[in-house]
Amino acid sequence: MTEANSLSLWQQIKEDWEAHGRDWTLPGFRAVAVHRFGVWRMSVQPKLLRAPFSLLYRSLYRKVRNTYGIELPYTVQLGRRVVIEHQGGIVIHGYSHIGDDSIIRQNVTLGLRHLDRLMDAPKLGKRVNVGAGAVILGNVSIGDNANIGANAVVLADVPAGQTAVGIPAKVITPKSQPAPVHPVTIEEAPIPVDCN
Questions:
Q1: Model confidence pLDDT, tens digit, residues 67-102
Q2: For the domain that residue 139 is a member of, what is the CATH number?
Q3: The domain containing residue 100 runs over which residues?
Q4: How many angstroms from the chain centroid is the CA of residue 17?
Q5: Which one of 64, 105, 156, 190 has the fewest CB atoms closer than 10 angstroms to its CB?
Q6: Is residue 128 part of a domain?
Q7: Any domain includes 176
Q8: When comparing pLDDT for 39 and 182, which is higher?
Q9: Domain total for the chain?
Q10: Contacts with 163 (C-beta within 8 Å, 6 or more apart), sequence order
């Protein structure tokens, strides 16, 4: 049982609403709320009692997908307070994992690399920041606090706290910062000495 599942449906939706700036009209919030409802309805037993909830979920899922361009099936392992910041072109494979407090932007794909390996979907750690247009394919793990640059194509693991950019994405290391230059004030400036 994941940490998100230990909360009630309404507690999860309230958290997601707060993470999305308390704006219930945002497409990202609506997509996440429909996802949470889809997961919750699977707990309703027996299956016959679940049927009307499943019908409602399928209708809402299609509405979010067709109106906002966000595909987020209920089978995705979605952490707490995940933010879908923008709408359009977002495709998340049903076996993907997205950790707590992660951010997904427009035109992001989390998908398969090989069609014969349906379970090999990406796994994002906590607080992962995915830039617009990024594509993460296959059984790759993105570590906690990692950044995926805009339009990056990630085909290999990205360690925690690192940034991956490019096609195919490579982990970049920040250049070392030069020592800060302290300006010299008039009082500190050396006084020229005339040797003549």
A1: 999 999 999 999 999 999 999 999 999 999 999 999
A2: 2.160.10.10
A3: 4-170
A4: 16
A5: 190
A6: yes
A7: no
A8: 39
A9: 1
A10: 146, 147, 148, 149, 171, 172, 174
